[in-house]
Write a structure and sequence with these properties.
CATH superfamily of the largest domain in chain A: ABC transporter type 1, transmembrane domain
CATH class of the largest domain in chain B: Alpha Beta
Largest interface: A-B, 146 and 146 residues
CATH architecture of the largest domain in chain B: 3-Layer(aba) Sandwich
Shape of chain B: elongated
Radius of gyration of chain B: 35 Å
GO molecular function, one term (chain A): ATPase-coupled lipid transmembrane transporter activity
InterPro entries (chain A): AAA+_ATPase, ABC1_TM_dom, ABC1_TM_sf, ABC_transporter-like_ATP-bd, ABC_transporter-like_CS, P-loop_NTPase, Type_1_exporter
Oligomer: heterodimer
Strand order of the largest sheet of chain A: 6-7-8-3-9
Number of domains of chain B: 2
Number of strands of chain B: 11
Distance between the termini of chain B: 53 Å
Structural class of chain A: alpha/beta
Number of helices of chain B: 15
Structural class of chain B: alpha/beta
Largest sheet of chain B: 5 strands, parallel
Distance between the termini of chain A: 40 Å
Largest sheet of chain A: 5 strands, parallel
Shape of chain A: elongated
Membrane topology (chain A): Multi-pass membrane protein
Radius of gyration of chain A: 34 Å
Domain ABC transmembrane type-1 (chain A): 18-294
Strand content of chain B: 5-15%
Number of strands of chain A: 9
CATH topology of the largest domain in chain A: ABC transporter transmembrane region fold
Transmembrane segments (chain A): 21-41, 53-73, 138-156, 162-184, 243-264, 270-289
Chain lengths: 533, 527
């Protein structure tokens, strides 16, 4: 489970170590500052009582200089710890993101990951990891606080030191025992209630016209209130659990101070030193304890991320770009038996829901091919081929033209490495988009907006077609290429594509309900998919 | 909102925490003073007990503050839910992706408000009063120490004001950069099918890795500034301890470089020393909760956009069957637009709309209810613009999806007309053909249902919808493929029920079925 994190932390180990050292220094300075101040005041009081002579014999220069020094050390060390800790955490997190992305790429069914909900959860889970990483220096700080506290308590008496050790151990144990009992169930209840609430809302929204027609929103609001009530009971339980665990520390601090007073056999100044140092040592635990209690959330996030990223697999093999085989595609399903050779064309029509899009996605290698999908590439069943080999044969322009948030050029250059601008413009010409792009203020550097939101539906579609043309694969897969286009553009696009296919000798499988695109493939080359539901 | 004491409860608990800290300091000072005077073990045990009791009180205050904060946050969240949920529930159908995001926004952003209201706001209120209370308590030990604490507050406030604006700007920039990075990550994961299909994994992966490293490096530069403000708090917290310690020590030794303004005892000196770090604690806590504030404010911005504006002015309801007219209506979903459609439905007649899937038949019904964006043309109800007529709540609707609430079958039918009596509900249930099912289950109309209507078949659910139309007895009916996906027998059955009940009403039916279309006065094919 921690593999992902361990890999990412690796290169930042030095920075984390420095942050840990600085955190320890800041903690030691804080404990010493309070302890030494107490010792100084008490010693001064006793010396003051002893009369002028005793007062003048009291060495105040060293302690008072120490107190000033410690105040400065505490401040600078804390600042350095924050800086190094965050630097290490952010860099490690950058590595986590990159690694996670690499691993997600090797998932078999990429469509499952790219669903919106999964992606937003991904971001939240990475946020939970950040929290965890930023808290990393808390452990050395807790150790340093305990060490200095125990050492100063030892000055009072071995027994006070032992009592403090027992208390510290008890509090760590308390955090580890209480977390699963107080927080784990609340954390899962919270996550489940949230998921149920979202699911019910989606269910209800499906019936939104009826809700509006009968003004059902109040009644449904009451029904949703049952789920929000569960959420509202789980969240305070979690917060209360955390507060109770923290309260253990506060109480522990009080007990530690009391215990130091009672068990100390040393002089009064040393006793006061031990009392304040013990309180400081216990306070130094708080960052660590908070980390333990948040562990309930981090563990859940980590396991989700691991599950989503799948097992580490061999690095993605480079697709053999030079000469992909894939000369023939054979369909043998639903009583159809069709074989198309390199450079040939096939049209697919059928009602919505008949599986046209999923057929293209299977061919493109982004939907796992089932054992019985009945498609063979060069006489090998699709399911038996590595998906990289399948993908290398096809260039897909999907039904919903997915674009990256970036420039026109970014989007086109996804197709293949090393594409010159001339090649890009040529592809845009074929896709009937060159005129539109030239009219844009930044041309190829035009920002397309989030998911291509600044382009019209038809422009997005044509950009995705241009991208598919640039990939240089033996087969082109077009899913509803004319969606969002007017009749004139549609006709021009079909003409351009016809010429381009002939020139390059590329084969095409096109899904469309428009006669003009079905005529592109020639008479009798269209199959009609039956409703498979 | 509830009474102000409730809202302030968490802040009061945090202030109480500072009060308990004063008790702790007093107990400790008392214990040491009694040891100094050589008092017996009894005194010592009493003081130690007091110390632990004060610690217990403090722990209780902190738990109380958390509880009260959560309670306050819950009230705010409930308020927002009431404002936002109705809008989500009547979101335009057909736009699944947007719906998913809207639901995530409505649920998660409201949860994001928690930290802001449960922690940040009470801590901010407490941060004003708590340091003052600590300083006043310190005055009872040593007025000079109290003055020292308050005096460090002045440069502290100036430093914070200087660093604070820079830090706030820096923090906002950092949050911005991080969210842009998350956005980039989300975008590339969302476009995964494209990236994989074009074998662009390596290139995109490298680009993403470079971008995250670059943002991380930039963020660190920004953080250097942001951490200055916490360093200032840290510095003055340490300074306040050091100054109090040095003053008290020199005062006790009697070697102050200026005439001693007061004569301190050990107990007084220890008391103010232990209080010194407590003086800055509320501000340190507040700084730690700063992230909650940023998240909470960002969430409010999103929620304001989601929440519908003030409730609409009352509109005239329809009386009697209305005449409908669609005048060149274009429905514009942004990416795709459908239409223009022109139809005329005289009062009291019915029109069946047919046409292939995706042509926009259902969208027309939705547009009438205000659920679809109209890009051009007008919809007139009795000559008035549809938006100015109170249609929602005053029409009969039967569609392919039927909404259920947890409750009995009778409750669910009665949703259409809450004041209907049992006899009326039973009558429409039988009229809608639910009779055989009711008898088979043996629970009558008291049959319990959950929010998905689990246990009912597709046909039975549709019949519940039909029963609602019948119960509503509205002058205008909107029927969106009420018989789609039903077996031939049930479809014919329902068509028959609707045919006899629809007489004298204005009815708009969207359907593929010729059988259902036949019950309408007129039929029209959209293309």
């Amino acid at each position: 489970m921690d593999l992902l994190l361990a890999e990412a932390i690796g290169p930042e180990r030095r920075a984390f170590r420095i942050a840990g050292l600085l955190a320890s220094a800041a903690t030691i300075a804080a404990v010493l500052l309070l302890g030494l101040s107490g010792w100084f005041i008490t010693g001064a009081a006793l010396a003051g009582l002893g009369g002028v002579l005793a007062a003048q014999g009291f060495n105040y220069l060293v302690p008072s200089a120490m107190i000033r020094l410690l105040a400065i050390v505490r401040t600078t060390a804390r600042y350095g710890e924050r800086l190094y800790g965050h630097r290490a955490a952010l860099m490690a997190l950058a590595a986590v993101r990159a690694r996670l992305f690499d691993r997600i790429l090797s998932v078999r069914d990429v469509r499952a990951v790219s669903a919106g909900d999964a992606v937003t959860r991904l971001v939240q889970d990475i946020g939970a990891l950040e929290d965890n990483l930023v808290r990393k220096p808390a452990l050395p700080a807790a150790f340093a606080g305990a060490a200095i506290g125990l050492a100063l308590a030892w000055l009072a008496s071995p027994w006070t030191s032992l009592a403090l050790l027992a208390l510290l151990a008890g509090l760590v144990l308390w955090a580890h025992l209480a977390t699963p009992r107080l927080l784990a169930s609340a954390a899962t209840d919270m996550a489940e209630a949230l998921a149920r609430l979202k699911a019910s809302m989606v269910d209800y929204a499906a019936a939104s016209p009826e809700i509006l027609a009968y003004d059902l929103a109040p009644a449904i609001g009451r029904s949703l209130a049952v789920e929000t009530a569960e959420l509202d009971s789980a969240r305070p339980r979690f917060a209360r659990g955390e507060a109770i665990i923290d309260a253990g520390l506060v109480l522990g601090g009080g007990i530690a101070m009391g215990a130091m007073l009672i068990f100390s056999h040393a002089s009064l100044p040393v006793t006061v030193l031990a009392v304040l140092a013990a309180a400081g040592a216990i306070e130094a635990l708080s960052g660590y304890v908070r980390g333990v209690s948040r562990g309930a959330l981090v563990a859940a996030a980590l396991s989700r991320l691991e599950g989503m990223a799948g097992q580490p697999s061999a690095p993605v093999r480079k697709a053999t770009a030079s000469m992909a085989p894939a000369r023939t595609i054979a369909f043998d399903r639903d009583g159809m038996n069709i074989r198309i050779m390199a450079g040939e064309r096939l049209g697919i029509s059928g009602k919505s829901g008949s599986g046209k899009t999923s057929l293209l996605e299977t061919l493109a290698g982004i939907r796992p091919a089932g054992e019985h999908c009945g498609i063979a590439l060069d006489d090998q069943l699709l399911a038996s081929l590595p998906s990289e080999d399948v993908r290398a044969a096809f260039a897909l322009s999907p039904q919903d033209a997915q674009l990256l948030s970036g420039t026109i050029r970014d989007n086109l250059r996804v197709a293949r490495p090393g594409l010159s601008d001339e090649r890009l413009w040529a592809a845009l010409e074929v896709a009937c988009l060159a005129v539109d792009i030239r009219a844009m203020p930044h041309g190829l550097d035009q920002w397309v907006g989030d998911g291509g939101a600044r382009l019209s539906g038809g422009q997005r579609k044509r950009l995705s077609i241009a991208r598919a043309l640039l990939a240089g694969r033996p087969w082109l897969l077009l899913d509803e290429p004319s969606e969002g286009l007017d009749m004139a553009t549609e006709a021009r696009l079909a003409g351009h594509l016809d010429a381009w296919l002939r020139e390059t000798g590329t084969g095409v499988v096109v899904v469309s309900h428009r006669p003009i695109f079905l005529s592109l493939v020639g008479k009798g080359r269209t199959i009609n998919l039956k409703d498979r539901r | 909102m509830s009474n102000p004491l409730d809202r302030q409860a968490a802040a009061l608990f945090w202030i109480g925490d500072s009060g308990a800290a004063i008790l702790m300091a007093a107990a400790l000072a008392g214990a040491v003073a009694s040891m100094e005077q050589g008092a017996g073990q009894g005194h010592l045990a009493l003081a130690a007990g007091g110390l632990i009791a004060a610690a217990l009180l403090r722990a209780g205050m902190q738990i109380g503050a958390t509880n009260a904060g959560e309670a306050a946050a819950m009230r705010v969240k409930t308020n927002w839910r009431q404002r936002v949920y109705p809008g989500i529930l009547v979101a335009a159908p057909g736009d699944r992706r947007m719906l998913g995001e809207a639901v995530a926004d409505a649920v998660d952003r409201i949860e994001d408000l928690g930290g802001f209201h449960a922690r940040f706001l009470p801590l901010r209120r407490a941060a004003v009063l708590s340091p003052l209370i600590i300083a006043i308590a310190a005055v009872f030990g040593s007025w000079v120490a109290g003055v020292i604490m308050l005096a460090t507050l002045i440069p502290f406030a100036m430093g914070m004001a200087l660093a604070g604006t820079a830090a706030a700007r820096a923090a906002a920039r950092q949050l911005d950069a991080l969210s842009r990075l998350s956005g980039l990550f989300v975008d590339r994961v969302r476009a995964l099918p494209v990236i994989v299909a074009f074998a662009a994994q390596d290139r995109i992966g490298r680009h993403l890795a470079d971008a995250t490293r670059e943002v991380a490096a930039r963020t660190i530069d920004v953080l250097k500034v942001a951490f200055v403000s916490s360093a200032i708090i840290e510095f003055f917290a340490a300074l306040s301890v050091a100054l109090v310690a040095l003053y008290c020590g020199f005062n006790l030794l009697g070697i102050l470089p200026f005439p001693a303004p007061e004569k301190l005892t050990l107990g007084q000196a220890l008391f103010v020393l232990v209080l010194a770090p407590e003086f800055y604690l509320p501000m340190r806590r507040l700084a730690a909760a700063y992230h909650d504030k940023q998240v909470g404010e960002a969430a409010v911005e999103r929620l304001e956009a989601l929440a519908p504006a003030s409730p609409p002015a009352p509109k005239p309801a329809i009386e009697g069957p209305p005449a409908l007219r669609f005048d060149g209506v274009v429905i514009d979903y942004g990416e795709t637009a459908i239409g223009p459609f022109t139809l005329d439905i005289p009062a009291g007649t019915s029109l069946a709309l047919r046409g292939s899937t995706g042509v926009g038949k259902s969208s027309l019904l939705h547009a009438l209810l205000g659920l679809a964006p109209i890009g051009g043309g007008r919809i007139l109800v009795d000559g008035r613009d549809a938006a100015e007529v109170a249609l929602p709540g005053h029409v009969g609707w039967a569609g392919q999806t039927v909404a259920f609430v947890p409750g009995t079958l009778a409750d669910n039918i009665r949703l259409a007309r809450p004041d209907a009596d049992d006899a009326a509900v039973e009558a429409v249930a039988h009229l809608a053909g639910l009779g055989p099912m009711i008898e088979a289950r043996g629970q009558g109309l008291a049959l319990p249902l959950d929010h998905r209507g689990s246990g009912l078949s597709g046909g039975e659910r549709r019949r519940v919808g039909i029963a609602r139309v019948l119960l509503k007895d509205a002058p205008l009916w909107l029927l969106d493929e009420p018989t789609a996906d039903l077996d031939a027998g049930s479809a014919a059955d329902i068509a028959g029920i609707l045919a006899s009940a629809a007489k004298g009403r204005t009815v708009l039916i969207v359907t593929h079925s010729a059988e259902l279309a036949a019950i309408a006065t007129k039929e029209m094919v959209l293309s």
